[in-house]
Amino acid sequence: MESLTVSLSPEGVPVAFTVAGDGWRVTEEAVRWYERTPWWETASRMPREHGRIDVEVWQLQARQDTSRHRGNNTQQPLVTFVLVRDQNTGEWSVRSAAENPD
């Protein structure tokens, strides 16, 4: 998983993010869900700092954010990203990214 920087709205919804130096602007409504991580595969006991929910997952549709178009350039392909935020560390990562078919 690749580390990234995420900008959130006042409500806590991702609105923009940067991956490997490329800026992206969220253009569609985001979808959020929560998952457990399989800690039992690497440890014999649940780590003390773990809660019931381990990761927050966001599915986002975004366009590359150029200074001229601010993510609204319809010539740029729409890409669906799945971003994950670790509830214990607050760190974000990219789970997947796929260009949407026309």
Describe this structure in words.
- The protein is mainly β and 102 residues long.
- It contains no helices and seven strands.
- A six-stranded antiparallel barrel has the order 1-2-3-5-6-7.
- Strand 2 and strand 3 form a beta hairpin.
- The mean pLDDT is 82.
Q: How do you describe this structure in short?
A:
With about 100 residues, this protein is mainly beta. The chain contains no helices and seven strands.
Strand content: over 45%
**Shape by Cα distribution:** elongated
Helix and strand content put the structural class at mainly beta
Strand order, largest beta sheet? 1-2-3-5-6-7
Distance between the termini: 27 Å
Compile the SSE list and pairings.
Elements: E1 2-8, E2 14-19, E3 22-26, E4 31-35, E5 55-64, E6 79-86, E7 92-99
Which key terms come to mind for this protein?
0% helix, 48% strand, six-stranded antiparallel barrel, elongated, 102 residues, mainly beta
